[in-house]
From TrEMBL:
Residues 75-167 form the TnsA endonuclease N-terminal domain. This is Tn7 transposase TnsA N-terminal domain-containing protein. Gene3D superfamilies: 3.40.1350.10. InterPro entries: Restrct_endonuc-II-like, TnsA_N, tRNA_endonuc-like_dom_sf.
Length: 245
């Protein structure tokens, strides 16, 4: 699923954004329709550099960041596009009329619906897409929000794209901080290899005992492998991030 880059195919008021690359492209060429600076924030928005897709990702809430990290860890996920626009506005206007929903406008011009995440997965049958919406439990139970989500669902169904409303009740700050801790191997510019990862994971598990603090386990493993403690810490984070521990 990729929108054509020819701006003449869309309503004229969308042309300027599309010419700047918003909402089109895939992989590291994709630019989200909405960026952090475009949306009022309560301090929960953020920009994150991707690991597998080398570009800045724009998230409007901590819930979105948490879900992104969970998807980024999956080996079969090959692309993640946030704030993905439905540029088929003629159809979303029809669906809004059908569902009794007020379409978003900027001034007198209709604005696209945006899907929080459009994810590309590699499967045995080939590439497939799935769409995900991220809402707080309170918003998910709001009747007005539910009607807008129905527009997303129906449009995706027509495109044969599975759509799901994510249960975010367990995506709390503890989960986010744990994911950030594991992912910090990337921020520290740790360079993994298959051999180093396998050797570290085996040594760590040989040293592992219940109720022993992580710092002590890392010291033992670092000493055994003759690694600097900081390198052992990043090796542990990488192994955890990639489900090898």
């Amino acid at each position: 699923m990729e929108w054509p880059s020819t701006s003449d195919l869309y309503l004229p008021h969308l042309g300027a954004k599309i010419r700047r690359g918003r909402g089109i492209g895939m992989g590291d060429a994709y630019i989200p329709w909405l960026k952090v600076r475009d949306v009022p924030s309560r301090g929960t928005s953020s920009i994150v550099r991707g690991i597998n897709v080398d570009r800045p990702f724009h998230f409007l809430s901590k819930l979105e960041v948490t879900y992104f990290y969970l998807q980024e860890r999956k080996s079969n996920v090959i692309d993640i596009r946030e704030q993905f626009p439905i540029l088929d506005i003629a159809r979303t206007l029809e669906l809004c009329s059908q569902f009794g929903v007020t379409h978003s406008y900027r001034g007198s011009y209709p604005e696209p619906f945006t899907i929080d995440f459009l994810i590309t997965e590699k499967t045995a049958e080939g590439v497939r897409y799935k769409a995900a919406s991220i809402k707080t439990p309170e918003d998910a139970n709001d009747a007005r929000v539910a009607l807008r989500l129905a527009i997303e669902y129906e449009w995706c169904r027509e495109q044969s794209i599975p759509w799901v409303l994510i249960d975010t009740s367990l995506l709390n700050d503890i989960v986010l901080e744990n994911l950030r801790f594991l992912r910090s191997w990337f921020r520290h510019r740790y360079i993994p290899s298959i051999q180093k990862t396998s050797t570290f994971a085996m040594s760590f598990m040989n040293n592992y005992s219940r109720n022993v603090p992580l710092v002590e386990l890392l010291k033992r493993t670092a000493s055994q492998l003759r690694l600097e403690f900081s390198v052992a810490g990043d090796a542990f984070r990488y192994c955890g991030w990639t489900n090898q521990l």
